[in-house]
């Protein structure tokens, strides 16, 4: 399977965007990116497989200004 998504990561306080495959109590990182990538939208894509029920979770962390 494949998940396709758009993301925008701009500014000095941008932290990390992570996509997880959640099966039961297990979180498996599918994709992760950190830092400033400019004032534009990007297309992200990742593949995964699962034979059990699952959830796809997006987690974003914003860093504090220095």
Textual characterization of the structure:
It is a single chain. With 66 residues, this protein is an all-beta fold. The protein has one domain (2-62). Helices cover 0% and strands 59% of the residues. It has a three-stranded antiparallel beta sheet with strand order 3-2-5, with no helix packed on it. The protein has a two-stranded antiparallel sheet with strand order 1-4. Strand 2 (14-23) and strand 3 (26-34) form a beta hairpin. It is elongated and about 40 Å long. The model has no long low-confidence stretch (mean pLDDT 92). Residues 1-66 form the MAM domain. This is MAM domain-containing protein.
Q: What is the residue-averaged pLDDT?
A: 92
Write down the overall geometry.
Answer: elongated
Low-confidence sequence ranges: none
In whole angstroms, the N-to-C terminal distance is 40 Å
What is the SS-derived class? Answer: mainly beta
Number of distinct beta strands: 5
